[in-house]
Design goal:
Layout (H helix, E strand, L loop, with lengths): L7 H10 L12 H5 L10 H10 L7 E2 L2 E2 L15 H10 L1 H11 L8 H13 L9 H10 L7 E2 L2 E2 L15 H10 L1 H10 L9 H12 L17 H10 L7 E2 L2 E2 L7 H4 L4 H21 L9 H14 L8 H10 L7 E2 L2 E2 L15 H10 L18 H16 L2
Antiparallel strand pairs: 1-2, 3-4, 5-6, 7-8
Helix pairs in contact: 1-3, 3-6, 4-17, 6-16, 7-10, 8-13, 8-14, 10-13, 11-14, 15-17
Length: about 400
């Protein structure tokens, strides 16, 4: 497990030192996506970190303050980071980026399909991580929520529960989340016996609690420790093997007695998800027992993979429509350069004669590698600003053309 511990800033540093450990973190099973008619995301976020550095993105952009300052820090990108959100951002800012690169004497990199997919996976995975917590707030929460009655930190506190200063299970947020889930029923019973109200937490509060607990740990590296997004394929297995699918649905995989967990999987960071698990645990435990199910225990690796699966399901949250995509071609300015069935200027070629595109990553690479008219000395045209859903529709249309060949 320790080999999978890394914080977001350190992940960004990998491209500076030439990372060699490439861990695929966004690999949903084909059977899950086939029902949605969505392509299989096999992008590699760690490889994407290397692309970010090797292709010069780092010269203008930073990740959590590490990198250039010409463009925005990409760790502060708006919350929604689906594949097509990021593809749309790359397209919409392309003219300004190319202009600035020219001014700085930087050549626009040519990205392959694989590099584009990996890069977007890297940027997508950044939302998974939490920033460092506030130790003072964590200490206040530890006291106010009466954790101190059962647990010790720094030699102060009760002895009913484990001493968190020396516990070997609280070294990273994923381990904290796992311990809270596994020991939740016992903790609830202990609190009830002592007349302690079971607290509810937000993701940011859990982050602060972890920061406080870690201040008294010896031998840990300085700075925050986080776990990389888990392996989505393995997480899907966990979802079934641990009987989560007996109550929850994930886009058709499971029952409907409880909320679709995919709707929560991309709404926040790991600790946001962990807080939701803690807050809902009493109701979930009661429901499982009523169904005759035992409450499953999870290892940190299983928890990471489960969250990685739920997080990655929303990677292609927009499902494009080829018919809408054809209409977008006609209404969003594409025919100022291209032709479709004989309509348009034709300077940049007929859509049906384009290279065969079979994945969203291939199409996004083509959009990035797009030759601007200004680069050829031609007359400038208004650059269409596209929304994520429009990019998804265009991708569906272009892939439909390829499928017919």
């Amino acid at each position: 497990m320790r080999s999978r511990l890394l914080d977001r800033r350190r992940l960004a540093q990998w491209y500076l030192i030439g990372a060699a450990c490439l861990v695929p973190v966004l690999a949903c099973p084909a059977t899950t996506l086939a029902a949605q008619e969505r392509p299989l995301p096999t992008q590699n976020a760690m490889a994407g970190a290397r692309v970010f550095g090797s292709e010069g993105c780092v010269k203008c952009h930073a990740i959590d303050g590490l990198g250039g300052t010409e463009g925005p820090d990409l760790a502060s990108f708006p919350t929604s980071r689906t594949f097509y959100d990021l593809a749309a951002a790359m397209w919409n800012h392309l003219p300004a980026m190319v202009t600035r690169m020219r001014e700085l004497g930087i050549s626009k990199p040519h990205l392959s399909e694989r590099e584009t997919g990996d890069l977007i996976a890297f940027l997508f995975s950044l939302n998974y991580f939490d920033t460092a917590g506030d130790t003072a707030s964590g200490r206040a929460l530890f006291d106010e929520n009466r954790c101190i009655l059962c647990h010790q930190v720094g030699g102060v506190g009760g002895v009913v529960g484990p001493n968190l200063s020396i516990s070997g299970t609280i070294q990273a947020p994923i381990e904290f989340a796992t311990a809270m889930w596994n020991h939740g029923p016992a903790m609830s019973e202990a609190m009830q016996a002592r007349g302690v109200a079971r607290p509810r937490f937000t993701g940011s509060q859990l982050r602060d609690l972890i920061a406080y607990i870690k201040t008294d740990k010896e031998g840990l590296p300085s700075g925050p420790l986080y776990v990389l997004p888990g392996l989505a394929g393995e997480g899907r297995q966990v979802f079934v093997e641990k009987t989560c699918n007996n109550c929850h649905d994930v886009e058709g995989l499971g029952a409907h007695a409880a909320p679709d967990l995919a709707d929560r999987g991309v709404s926040g960071s790991l600790l946001t998800f962990a807080a939701a698990m803690w807050n809902k645990a009493p109701a979930m435990t009661a429901s499982m027992r009523a169904k005759g199910l035992s409450v499953p225990s999870l290892t940190p690796t299983e928890m990471a993979d489960l969250v990685g699966y739920l997080y990655s399901v929303k990677y292609f949250t927009q499902s494009g429509d080829a018919r809408r995509g054809r209409q977008r071609v006609r209404t969003r300015g594409c025919l100022a350069c291209h032709t479709l069935d004989g309509r348009g200027t034709g300077g940049a070629g007929e859509f049906r004669d384009m290279p065969r595109f079979t994945t969203p990553a291939a199409i996004t690479a083509a959009l990035w590698n797009h030759v601007l008219l200004g680069e050829q000395g031609g007359t400038a045209v208004d650059w269409p600003v596209l929304k994520a859903g429009e990019i998804a529709d265009l991708a569906a249309f272009l892939m439909s053309l390829s499928a017919g060949r």
